[in-house]
Amino acid sequence: LNVIYTMQEYPDYDLDKKITDDIASQCCYMAARELIDKSGQRYTEYGLDKPVATVSVRYSDASEIKFYIGNDAPDNKGLYLRLDGDRNVYLVQTSMVNALLVEGIQVLDKTLTGSIDEFKDLLISGTNYQDEIHIAENTLSCYSSLYMMKEPARYGCDNTKTNSILNSVSDLKAEFITVVDATEDDIKKYGLDDPYESLTVVGKEGNPICLIASEPDENKCFYLMNTDKSIIYQDYVLENSWYNLKKSDFLSDSVFKCKADAIQELTLKMEHQTAVYHTEQEMSLNEQYYETMTTTVTRDNEKIDYSNYSLFLSNLSDIKRTSDIPDSLENSIELFRADFKYFNLDSVTDSLVLYREKSGKTIAVLNGNIESYVDSEFVDSFISVDRKSTRLN
């Protein structure tokens, strides 16, 4: 039997079913741990002269009962309780009455979002963000990622990282309710009129979910709302991986990744020398009538060993970001440049440029955007190998 409860004060709001089920269970199956006092004269000692809670219960057979919950007993042994019409004082386990002590509005359902099974767009903005972050499903065949960052620049996103963020928005439930039927003054009071973060998830059916959130406080808590609801919630920062994001939270540890077999033309420049690699792909049927693809790579119209070309691409995808991001390219010189064009994607190109500072640090720039510092020792090793494999010397 699935029983649904409502609260008289807020009849239009759903209640937290787990809490209401616990309340019903505790009203039906309460048992005393110990009889403490039979005198009926010492209620003050047990906090029963001004009880913490007074509980009135009416059952389906029309019978009624009222009981009073008093203070905590020493040594965490439980709580004191007295039934109306019974002068005895009992000790009950805290777990037998804890749901009855939940503050009224905390019994309301704290779910902010439903399940997000199919994803189309994710938009993030707010006072914490200089540029809007826009993530969308990937429709470009040159990247293996499920998701693409479209703004502030185009990147293939890391599937695992992005899925984790999207999952944290799905079936989102807050820890506390702060305000019900929030007014504009409430929204301003809790820092949601000009939100620290605004996050919108759009499903493939076009059903957007928009969350707004305040700046975190000194206790690492923040306030949040679903703009379709009139409740202000509070939750912990650490429980919400969708909150306080950075661009790098969506990206692979590697500076640049694409599908090797999607590259039609690669222009490589090192030390004022340039080489152009061109790939041809031809489909044919083998003796078993299975389709096979033959890949031919030329450098400046001269056929080369595909293994050398493959080594270059493998090294390129192993260039890892660091946590440090340079402010500018001042006092740095271009060390290496790779420009990519793809099969059947005339309007899509990528460029990866590595710069070397006088200090010896190496900066990666992807499609004109400064990404981060990268490991100079690996870059030098990579370029040394690549000079031989690409015969630029």
- Strand proportion: 35-45%
What is the C-alpha radius of gyration, as a whole number of Å?
32 Å
Quote the average pLDDT: 90
User: Uncertain regions: pLDDT < 50 for 5+ in a row?
Assistant: 386-393
Q: Give the assembly state of these chains.
A: single chain
Helix content: 10-25%
Strand ordering within the main sheet? 9-8-7-6-11-12-13-14-10
The rounded distance between the terminal residues' Cα atoms is 80 Å
Describe the global form.
elongated
Category from helices, strands and their pairing: mainly beta
Number of strands: 22
How does the major sheet shape up?
A: 9 strands, antiparallel
Order of helices and strands: HEEEEEEEEEHEHEEEEEEEEHEEEEH
DSSP summary: helix tally = 5
